[in-house]
Amino acid sequence: MLPLRGRRTRREEGPSLSVTDLESSLVAEFSVLTVCTGNICRSPMAEQILRARLADLPELEFSSAGTYAGDGDVMPEQAAALSLRHGGDPTSHRARYLTEPILGSADLVLGMSRNHRREIVELLPKKISVTFTLREFARLSADVTDGEIRHAASMGLTVKASLAEVVALVASRKGQFGLVTSAEDDDVVDPYKRSDETYERSAQQLVPAAEQVARVLRVAVEASRA
Protein backbone atom coordinates (compact mmCIF):
# COMPACT_ATOMS: atom_id res chain seq x y z
CA MET A 1 0.00 0.00 0.00
CA LEU A 2 1.08 3.55 -0.60
CA PRO A 3 1.63 5.70 2.49
CA LEU A 4 -1.43 7.73 3.34
CA ARG A 5 -1.32 11.23 1.95
CA GLY A 6 -2.97 14.21 3.55
CA ARG A 7 -6.47 13.97 2.21
CA ARG A 8 -7.77 16.91 0.26
CA THR A 9 -11.33 18.09 0.17
CA ARG A 10 -13.34 15.31 -1.41
CA ARG A 11 -15.16 17.71 -3.70
CA GLU A 12 -11.96 19.26 -5.01
CA GLU A 13 -11.76 19.17 -8.76
CA GLY A 14 -9.20 16.85 -10.33
CA PRO A 15 -6.93 17.67 -13.27
CA SER A 16 -8.58 19.11 -16.36
CA LEU A 17 -9.34 16.79 -19.25
CA SER A 18 -6.80 16.48 -22.03
CA VAL A 19 -7.72 17.25 -25.63
CA THR A 20 -7.85 13.50 -26.30
CA ASP A 21 -10.18 12.96 -23.35
CA LEU A 22 -12.43 15.79 -24.51
CA GLU A 23 -12.60 14.43 -28.05
CA SER A 24 -13.40 10.97 -26.71
CA SER A 25 -16.14 12.26 -24.43
CA LEU A 26 -17.93 13.83 -27.41
CA VAL A 27 -18.47 10.33 -28.81
CA ALA A 28 -18.50 8.05 -25.77
CA GLU A 29 -21.81 7.30 -24.12
CA PHE A 30 -20.73 4.97 -21.31
CA SER A 31 -17.86 5.68 -18.93
CA VAL A 32 -15.86 3.01 -17.10
CA LEU A 33 -13.70 4.15 -14.18
CA THR A 34 -11.05 1.95 -12.57
CA VAL A 35 -9.80 2.81 -9.09
CA CYS A 36 -6.85 1.79 -6.92
CA THR A 37 -4.76 3.54 -4.28
CA GLY A 38 -2.05 5.53 -6.05
CA ASN A 39 -3.40 5.29 -9.62
CA ILE A 40 0.04 4.21 -10.83
CA CYS A 41 -0.10 0.39 -10.91
CA ARG A 42 -3.35 -1.54 -10.88
CA SER A 43 -6.04 0.90 -12.00
CA PRO A 44 -4.07 2.34 -14.95
CA MET A 45 -3.16 -1.17 -16.09
CA ALA A 46 -6.84 -2.14 -16.02
CA GLU A 47 -7.82 1.08 -17.80
CA GLN A 48 -5.19 0.64 -20.50
CA ILE A 49 -5.92 -3.03 -21.12
CA LEU A 50 -9.67 -2.42 -21.36
CA ARG A 51 -9.11 0.48 -23.74
CA ALA A 52 -6.83 -1.64 -25.92
CA ARG A 53 -9.27 -4.56 -26.07
CA LEU A 54 -12.22 -2.31 -26.90
CA ALA A 55 -10.52 0.38 -28.98
CA ASP A 56 -12.94 -0.19 -31.86
CA LEU A 57 -15.96 0.74 -29.72
CA PRO A 58 -16.14 4.56 -29.55
CA GLU A 59 -19.22 4.34 -27.36
CA LEU A 60 -16.98 3.43 -24.42
CA GLU A 61 -14.72 5.74 -22.42
CA PHE A 62 -12.11 4.53 -19.93
CA SER A 63 -10.37 6.42 -17.15
CA SER A 64 -8.80 5.76 -13.76
CA ALA A 65 -8.10 7.46 -10.45
CA GLY A 66 -6.64 6.73 -7.02
CA THR A 67 -7.96 7.13 -3.50
CA TYR A 68 -4.56 8.45 -2.32
CA ALA A 69 -3.04 9.46 -5.65
CA GLY A 70 -0.54 12.23 -6.16
CA ASP A 71 -1.71 14.11 -9.24
CA GLY A 72 0.83 13.74 -12.03
CA ASP A 73 2.66 10.68 -10.69
CA VAL A 74 3.85 8.24 -13.36
CA MET A 75 3.67 4.46 -13.45
CA PRO A 76 6.60 2.44 -12.05
CA GLU A 77 8.69 0.75 -14.73
CA GLN A 78 7.39 -2.70 -13.79
CA ALA A 79 3.73 -1.66 -14.09
CA ALA A 80 4.31 0.16 -17.38
CA ALA A 81 6.15 -2.84 -18.81
CA LEU A 82 3.35 -5.21 -17.82
CA SER A 83 0.75 -2.94 -19.38
CA LEU A 84 2.74 -2.86 -22.63
CA ARG A 85 3.14 -6.63 -22.59
CA HIS A 86 -0.62 -7.06 -22.39
CA GLY A 87 -1.42 -4.53 -25.09
CA GLY A 88 -1.85 -1.36 -23.06
CA ASP A 89 -0.27 2.03 -23.68
CA PRO A 90 1.12 3.56 -20.47
CA THR A 91 3.10 6.40 -22.08
CA SER A 92 0.72 9.27 -21.37
CA HIS A 93 -0.64 8.13 -18.02
CA ARG A 94 -0.49 10.54 -15.11
CA ALA A 95 -2.08 9.76 -11.77
CA ARG A 96 -5.08 11.69 -10.51
CA TYR A 97 -6.83 11.82 -7.17
CA LEU A 98 -10.35 10.41 -6.97
CA THR A 99 -12.89 13.19 -6.43
CA GLU A 100 -16.65 13.26 -6.35
CA PRO A 101 -16.93 14.90 -9.80
CA ILE A 102 -14.73 12.19 -11.34
CA LEU A 103 -16.75 9.46 -9.68
CA GLY A 104 -20.05 11.11 -10.45
CA SER A 105 -19.48 10.92 -14.20
CA ALA A 106 -18.77 7.17 -14.21
CA ASP A 107 -21.37 4.62 -15.31
CA LEU A 108 -19.40 1.57 -14.11
CA VAL A 109 -16.80 1.74 -11.34
CA LEU A 110 -14.27 -1.06 -10.85
CA GLY A 111 -12.09 -0.94 -7.74
CA MET A 112 -9.02 -3.11 -7.49
CA SER A 113 -9.87 -4.30 -3.96
CA ARG A 114 -12.76 -4.50 -1.53
CA ASN A 115 -11.28 -1.54 0.36
CA HIS A 116 -11.45 0.57 -2.79
CA ARG A 117 -15.04 -0.51 -3.36
CA ARG A 118 -15.91 0.60 0.17
CA GLU A 119 -14.15 3.98 -0.23
CA ILE A 120 -15.90 4.59 -3.54
CA VAL A 121 -19.33 4.01 -2.04
CA GLU A 122 -18.48 6.13 1.01
CA LEU A 123 -17.52 9.00 -1.29
CA LEU A 124 -20.68 8.75 -3.40
CA PRO A 125 -23.27 6.33 -1.98
CA LYS A 126 -25.53 6.54 -5.03
CA LYS A 127 -22.87 4.64 -7.00
CA ILE A 128 -23.30 1.49 -4.92
CA SER A 129 -25.30 -0.34 -7.60
CA VAL A 130 -22.64 0.20 -10.28
CA THR A 131 -19.55 -0.35 -8.13
CA PHE A 132 -17.68 -3.66 -8.02
CA THR A 133 -14.14 -4.82 -7.68
CA LEU A 134 -12.64 -5.76 -11.03
CA ARG A 135 -12.39 -9.42 -10.11
CA GLU A 136 -15.86 -9.40 -8.56
CA PHE A 137 -17.44 -8.14 -11.79
CA ALA A 138 -15.50 -10.77 -13.74
CA ARG A 139 -16.57 -13.52 -11.35
CA LEU A 140 -20.24 -12.54 -11.35
CA SER A 141 -20.38 -12.18 -15.13
CA ALA A 142 -18.54 -15.41 -15.92
CA ASP A 143 -21.82 -17.37 -15.87
CA VAL A 144 -23.75 -14.72 -17.80
CA THR A 145 -24.13 -15.89 -21.38
CA ASP A 146 -23.81 -13.70 -24.45
CA GLY A 147 -27.51 -14.32 -25.06
CA GLU A 148 -28.42 -13.00 -21.63
CA ILE A 149 -26.24 -9.94 -22.20
CA ARG A 150 -27.90 -9.27 -25.57
CA HIS A 151 -31.36 -9.63 -24.05
CA ALA A 152 -30.56 -7.20 -21.24
CA ALA A 153 -29.03 -4.73 -23.69
CA SER A 154 -32.17 -4.87 -25.84
CA MET A 155 -34.13 -3.33 -22.96
CA GLY A 156 -32.35 0.02 -23.30
CA LEU A 157 -33.24 2.72 -25.81
CA THR A 158 -29.70 4.14 -25.92
CA VAL A 159 -26.22 2.68 -25.61
CA LYS A 160 -25.93 4.14 -22.11
CA ALA A 161 -29.26 2.65 -21.06
CA SER A 162 -28.45 -0.70 -22.67
CA LEU A 163 -25.17 -1.01 -20.79
CA ALA A 164 -26.84 0.07 -17.57
CA GLU A 165 -29.23 -2.86 -18.00
CA VAL A 166 -26.28 -5.20 -18.47
CA VAL A 167 -24.53 -3.88 -15.36
CA ALA A 168 -27.77 -4.45 -13.43
CA LEU A 169 -27.89 -8.00 -14.78
CA VAL A 170 -24.38 -8.68 -13.49
CA ALA A 171 -25.21 -7.10 -10.13
CA SER A 172 -28.24 -9.36 -9.83
CA ARG A 173 -25.91 -12.38 -9.69
CA LYS A 174 -24.54 -11.36 -6.32
CA GLY A 175 -25.18 -14.19 -3.88
CA GLN A 176 -26.26 -16.55 -6.66
CA PHE A 177 -23.28 -17.64 -8.73
CA GLY A 178 -19.51 -17.61 -8.73
CA LEU A 179 -19.01 -17.99 -4.99
CA VAL A 180 -15.49 -17.30 -3.76
CA THR A 181 -13.59 -19.51 -1.36
CA SER A 182 -11.94 -16.43 0.13
CA ALA A 183 -13.01 -12.79 0.10
CA GLU A 184 -9.51 -11.92 -1.06
CA ASP A 185 -10.31 -13.63 -4.36
CA ASP A 186 -12.13 -10.43 -5.31
CA ASP A 187 -8.96 -8.35 -4.83
CA VAL A 188 -6.00 -7.65 -7.11
CA VAL A 189 -2.84 -7.73 -5.03
CA ASP A 190 -1.06 -4.37 -4.66
CA PRO A 191 2.45 -4.69 -6.17
CA TYR A 192 3.68 -1.18 -5.37
CA LYS A 193 7.29 -1.19 -4.10
CA ARG A 194 7.28 -4.96 -4.02
CA SER A 195 9.10 -7.66 -5.96
CA ASP A 196 8.90 -8.37 -9.68
CA GLU A 197 7.20 -11.63 -8.73
CA THR A 198 4.45 -9.68 -6.97
CA TYR A 199 3.97 -7.50 -10.04
CA GLU A 200 3.59 -10.68 -12.09
CA ARG A 201 1.09 -12.13 -9.62
CA SER A 202 -0.89 -8.90 -9.67
CA ALA A 203 -1.03 -8.99 -13.47
CA GLN A 204 -2.07 -12.65 -13.42
CA GLN A 205 -5.07 -11.65 -11.33
CA LEU A 206 -5.85 -8.44 -13.19
CA VAL A 207 -5.55 -9.36 -16.86
CA PRO A 208 -8.03 -12.29 -17.00
CA ALA A 209 -10.54 -10.21 -15.05
CA ALA A 210 -10.14 -7.30 -17.46
CA GLU A 211 -10.60 -9.69 -20.39
CA GLN A 212 -13.88 -10.89 -18.89
CA VAL A 213 -15.10 -7.33 -18.36
CA ALA A 214 -14.16 -6.57 -21.97
CA ARG A 215 -16.22 -9.55 -23.17
CA VAL A 216 -19.32 -8.30 -21.39
CA LEU A 217 -18.91 -4.72 -22.60
CA ARG A 218 -18.27 -5.77 -26.20
CA VAL A 219 -21.34 -7.99 -26.41
CA ALA A 220 -23.45 -5.30 -24.77
CA VAL A 221 -22.32 -2.49 -27.08
CA GLU A 222 -22.70 -4.58 -30.21
CA ALA A 223 -26.20 -5.64 -29.11
CA SER A 224 -27.16 -2.03 -28.42
CA ARG A 225 -26.33 -1.17 -32.02
CA ALA A 226 -28.72 -3.76 -33.45
Question: Tags for this entry?
Answer:
protein phosphatase; 4-stranded parallel β-sheet; Phosphotyrosine protein phosphatase I domain-containing protein; 4 strands; 226 residues; Rossmann fold
How would you describe what is shown here?
Strands 2-1-3-4 form a four-stranded parallel sheet, with helices on both faces. It is built from nine helices and four strands, in the order H-E-H-E-H-H-E-H-E-H-H-H-H. Strand 1, helix 2 and strand 2 form a beta-alpha-beta unit. The chain has 226 residues and is of the alpha/beta class. Mean pLDDT is 89; it is low at 1-26. The chain has one domain (19-225): Response regulator (Rossmann fold, 3-Layer(aba) Sandwich). Helix 6 packs across helix 9 (196-225), helix 7 crosses helix 9 (196-225) and helix 8 crosses helix 9. The active site is at residues 36, 42, 146. This is Phosphotyrosine protein phosphatase I domain-containing protein. One of its GO terms (molecular function) is protein tyrosine phosphatase activity.
Quick structural summary:
This protein is an alpha/beta fold. It has helices spanning 19-27, 42-53, 77-85, 100-104, 114-123, 134-141, 146-153, 159-171, 196-225; strands at residues 30-36, 60-66, 108-111, 131-133. 46% of the residues lie in helices and 9% in strands.
Would you tell me the overall average pLDDT?
89
Report the principal-axis shape: globular
Please state the CA-atom Rg, rounded to the nearest Å: 16 Å
Question: How many structural domains can be distinguished in the coordinates?
Answer: 1
Work out the number of β strands.
Answer: 4
N-to-C order of helices and strands: HEHEHHEHEHHHH
> For this structure, what is the CATH class?
Alpha Beta
Distance between the termini: 44 Å
- SS content category: alpha/beta
Strand content: 5-15%
User: In DSSP terms, counting alpha (H) and pi (I) runs of 4 or more, how many helices?
Assistant: 9
At CATH level 2, the architecture is 3-Layer(aba) Sandwich
At the fourth CATH level, what is the homologous superfamily? Response regulator
Largest sheet: 4 strands, parallel
Order of strands across the widest beta sheet?
2-1-3-4
**Helix percentage:** 40-55%
User: In CATH terms, what is the fold-level topology?
Assistant: Rossmann fold
Q: Any low-confidence stretches, pLDDT <50, length ≥5? A: 1-26
